Amino acid sequence: MKQSWTGNKNKKFNLNFFLVGNSGSGKTHLAGTYSLGPTHFYMFDKGGENTLDKLIQKKTSKLSLDLLSSDDLSFSDIWTSLQKDQRDGFFDQMAEENGLIVFDSLTSVNQKAIKEIMYLNKRTGNKIGKPGDDKKNMRIQDWGQLLQWMTQFVGIIQELPCATITTVHLHTLTDKDNAVVARYPSVNGQFRQIVGVNYDETYLLEVRGENHILHFKERFKFEAKSRVFASKEVRNYTMDDLANAYMKGITDLPKKK
To answer: What is the pTM of this model?
Structure first.
């Protein structure tokens, strides 16, 4: 039966953001500008640790961290940690406190998954200075296993009751003449074709001079999208700006002075 719809008057900040950009484009920094509730980082990327150190010095609201970037930690270790936090009610608590959870970055998680799959399936890969052996590289079944693992990992993020941010690096594909053919999230296999599908918001981040730009529409051959905002791009917005606009129902974001 069709029902009339007048909007959600009890809207909460529970969007899933997918932030894509090159190193230094401000993904971690943007995630750290949220102050309307606690922020928790699952830090998988060693490059993001320096940014976090700076954020901790400036941030006035609650910021916590699970440091999971060590080479000694496997994909299974990360997965076990998330499942434990889910069982312990941590994500529900973050939702109650209007919190934000950041997964930084998916590229690093993907690399850990590949490393573990190669170990479990006894693929040793090519060694420096020695010819490659196809029997010791990733095979079709291994890529299928990677797709399954990564899909499950992102699935648990997208089902969380609180707002989330997942960061990922940007990969540029060029042809034989070095012309850009496409840009897409820097993860492997079929997963890169579907990873952004079920996120509410997928933004391309760019730094130009002193301006931090969020692209909400296709840009530089990358398919950015927004299900919430009608704007093409914004400059120097914080997560507080985005959260407040969403909860107030503002879709056409004003330019910041």
So the answer is: 0.90
CA distance 142 to 146: 6
Kindly provide the residue ranges of all beta strands, DSSP E only, lying in the chain, ordered along the sequence.
16-21, 39-43, 63-67, 100-104, 163-174, 180-185, 201-208, 211-215, 225-226, 233-235
211-215 and 100-104 as β-strands: parallel, antiparallel, unpaired? unpaired
Handedness of CA 73, 75, 80, 83 (dihedral sign): positive
Domain covering 16-248, topology: Rossmann fold (3.40.50)
**Every domain of the chain and the residues it spans:** 16-248
| 113-162 pLDDT, tens digit each | 999 999 999 887 655 555 545 556 888 999 999 999 999 999 999 999 99
Report the C-alpha gap between 52 and 29 in whole angstroms: 8
Could you tell me the two tokens for 243?
A: 């959260």
Query: Is the CB of residue 239 less than 8 Å from the CB of residue 254?
Result: no
